[in-house]
Amino acid sequence: MDSELPALLVLGPPMVFNLFQSHYSHKYRFLNAFSSHLPLPQFLQTQQTHPSSVRAILCSPRQPVTADVIRSLPSLGIVATTTVGADHIDTAECRRRGIQVVTLGSQFAPDVADMAVALLIDVMFKISAGDRFAKKSIHFKPWSFPSGSKLGGKRVGIIGLGRIGGQVAKRLEAFDCIIMYHSRNKNPSVSYTFYSNVVDLASNSDVLVLCCPLTEQTKYIVNKEVMLALGKDGIIVNVGRGALIDEKELVQCLMKGEIRGAGLDVFENEPNVPKELFSLDNVVLSPHAGAITLDCFMDACEHVAKSFDAFFSS
Questions:
Q1: Is 62 a catalytic residue?
Q2: Model pTM?
Q3: Does residue 50 carry a catalytic annotation?
Q4: Strand partners for 193
Q5: Catalytic-labelled residue, pool 163, 241, 247, 249
Q6: Mean pLDDT of 234-241
Q7: Could you tell me which residue ranges the D-isomer specific 2-hydroxyacid dehydrogenase NAD-binding domain spans (predicted)?
Q8: One of 184, 270, 276, 303 is an active-site residue; which one?
Q9: Does 112 lie in the same domain as 92?
Q10: Is 37 a catalytic residue?
């Protein structure tokens, strides 16, 4: 009987949810709150489910797990998200209640790092802009298109040398790039130059790649001062979170030529993207797709399923 299966409250939903549900519908009773406009207590009533019987949440950034949500579920013991970051979960309230928070950790890191390098190459070589140019021009001469720039030997400043940042550095070393970084703490296990100040890192970099989590301390870690320090030949790649960059200032710097270009997989007010960026050939946009691969989806489902199995069997 479905009513005898553990209840799993689904908020968001995660992009992998359809796949997860198809694989594990025999193990859990899915309470798809994302499909209802009712407040959570009323939604649970429609599902004939008492709040105290909900012990697990599966979520995504589309629908935050707030302190109010957590407090409304007295037996909640685990919150799992199919993202690397947990800024959409009130982790402080979870800690206070002793609730386990499960993220994807390093599962997405290689794919997101690939995306960061792809965006950088696209911006530097003007691949997307060149594609549009070639398709619009019936007869074109190669030299009629603005030249790009090589990647080899460029000074790359990585903000956040964690799982993803480390993978980005590993890939860019193969291009003979000079790697530098800024993190909360200096990493003694790497030989890259460490900068405790982001402005100093930008001043000594040709490229900034943002890979760090979004926290109160890292919001707008790349502001106008940092962009101006990066300079007119500088490129910014963001595969972290949109609000790591002061987006309004980024738009202005790109339009005024105060930085050379940007490759963006994330945005401050997703799914909204600043329209001013649409016509700029020095900008490459991606719809937060750094980890949208079937391989990642399968890995994410397996990781979350193992976490739920361990929780419900304990």
A1: no
A2: 0.80
A3: no
A4: 180
A5: 241
A6: 97
A7: 118-290
A8: 270
A9: no
A10: no
